[in-house]
Write a structure and sequence with these properties.
alpha/beta; Rossmann fold; N-(1-d-carboxylethyl)-l-norvaline Dehydrogenase, domain 2; 2-enoyl-CoA Hydratase, Chain A, domain 1; 4 domains; 8-stranded mixed beta sheet; 7-stranded mixed beta sheet; 32 helices; 45% helix
Length: 779
Amino acid sequence: MSAIRKVAVLGSGVMGGGIAAQVANAGVEVVLLDIVPKGATNRNQVAEAAIARLLKASPAAFMHPRNARLVTPGNLEDHLPLLAECDWIVEVVLEDLAIKRAIYEKVEQHRKAGSIVSSNTSTIPLRDLVAGLPERFQRDFCITHFFNPPRYMRLLEVVRGPKTRTDAVETLEEFCDVRLGKGVVHAKDTPGFIANRIGGMWMQAAVNAAMDLGLTVEEADAIMGRPFGFPKTGVFALFDLVGIDLMPHVAASMRRTLPPDDLYIRNLREPELIKKMIAEGLTGRKGKGGFFRLTKTPDGGRAKEAIDLKTGQYRKSEEPQLESIREGKRNLAALLAHADRGGEFARRVMALTLAYAAALVPEISDDIVGVDEAMRLGYAWKWGPFELIDRIGVDTVIAGLEAAKIPVPPLLKTAKGRTFYRVTDGALEHLGADGAYRRVERRPGVLLLADIKRKSKPLAKNGSASLWDIGDGVLCFEVHTKMNALDGDVVDLLAKSLDTVKRTAKALVIYNEGTNFSVGANIGLGLFAANLALWPMIEELETKGQTVLKTMKYAPFPVVAAPAGMALGGGCEIVLHSAAVQAHAESYIGLVETGVGLVPGWGGCKELLYRHALANASSLKGARGPMPPVAASFETIALAKVSKSAAEAQDLLLLRPADGITMNRDRLLADAKAKALALVKDYQPPKPQPISLPGPTGAAALGLALGDFHLQGKATDYDMVVSTKLARVLTGGDTDMLDETTEDKLLALEREAFLSLIRDPRTLARIEHMLETGKPLRN
């Protein structure tokens, strides 16, 4: 199987530019080509402007700004010979068959033998794209349908033609999986492929039902959101996000390519309200507003408004009050059975959506696994449609379809009295169209804790964490609280796990399959304890956390942290104390305690300080003396800096240069385990080392800088209090720069500052505000 070492992207629009950026994020060179504008003096200006736009994009397209250097801009007239250097050529031009075919004819003249060519089309059948083109081209061609934005949306639908080489598809799949971090799903050459075919029905059914039943957009989104495991945007806010003007284009494409008796076509409508909104520029977030919009208030604030689906007029957005919504937050079955219009809305939308999904297998995918994965990765559903059917109950869904006079698809009839998924001898199986169960297969190199948990029991467990055996002498410590926040039970089980590994195993991996590694200490519990003046309990947890993480750092075996998503506060401190880290590329790491009026209390100040001291000592250009590491650590912690990627975390020294980065989330545990095993042989824990710190003179210097920020209005009164205590910790307290400060003294300083701040009413106000709003209080 040949490797992909260089890629060309033809078309530098939103999607083409995003694909190029993600290829660069994988460390692979990219040629980005686009048209030459009429009369242009700079013939590469379209592609160059795209790169500049990508560098300013929010959320960021590049995982690190330096990755932009891997993208070479060019144009489709002068630089086609560069295609001869490329192993994969991705076409991302306008959805116009004539334009695409003209591009392919030029590509065929310049590409090298065996290079793979793909289109990012989502509306044009593959058979039409390659009709009449040379056999060589057809053998190397497929569709690679990315979802926007390519860096963050994991789904990649791959469609092969009857003549496409198997090894070309395998090469592409391996590259996109391992290097680009994509969840590759094989789709058939059918309209909308998998995710947009089902997602389109879901969204259309929701709009129709909301209008027919007189629901508000807030009510519809509340029902078609969290209760079903869908994103909180629901449907109408999702339309605002992707662009309301996209609706008629999708509808036209589906009407053109689907038969008239297709369930989607039979339910397709073009509401006058939506036509009017598009005509007036109300196309969503990119326009003047959408189903929702933000307006300025007289006091300079912003107010959220929602459109009335009956009148088309905006009004103040309101919290939905339907009883079915309150029921649905607790019990999905209760929502679907509820007699009010919210329950009827849920039944109508899900009946059509789930019936449609069941009717389309095997037309759009060989099995239900691909369909479920496409909806999870492409639409961020927590459960795919067949997983949802299992949660509701196959027989319940069938009864609902019969009551609504919707034909029951053959696949649902086959599943009657059973489930679409089952566990047999610890292995997950799925139901096929023939009525037989087959094992759900993982790609080589994928290890999921979910699979481990199906076939084994934890070695130790409490309400907040578990310890698992993942084989080859490696154990896995898993946190499973809400948002994986850290509490006393987590700390206790981590201490027990370290002892278990020491006695019975070789290494420990700290990992979970939640959205976030850990958002830090459970500040809700901290607020509760502080309000009851349970100071001994708070001090005990503070001391215990420091002790356990220090024990972990000096353990006689390697501990590998495997963060993904947010690793904040205490979660970051776990990362900092690990022998090594294997981080998912989308890891957002930071010591954010100052935002709630605290300082890192479990060794975070100490560890970051040591890292900066080591980096400063090893740098030929680094200024000597104790102050540069202090200043660098102070800036990161005081400003609560959070990396926007694992690559940026290395800049902040929250990750080390030798720490690994995994692009595909499904491969993180396997990579972390491999790293742990690689460290086992001849492993030696670090040796405690004292550090030279500037003491009161350094704290005074930081105080002068703080005073300037305060005068400029960049630091609040309480920011000054918190930052002054942080400065005392980082400068070593009452020490002299000629003395050496031990690790234990730094921990004592952290503990002193933390316990002092947690008693301050202004800290408690910050914590309460964060819990209520999710935003820091500037007091």
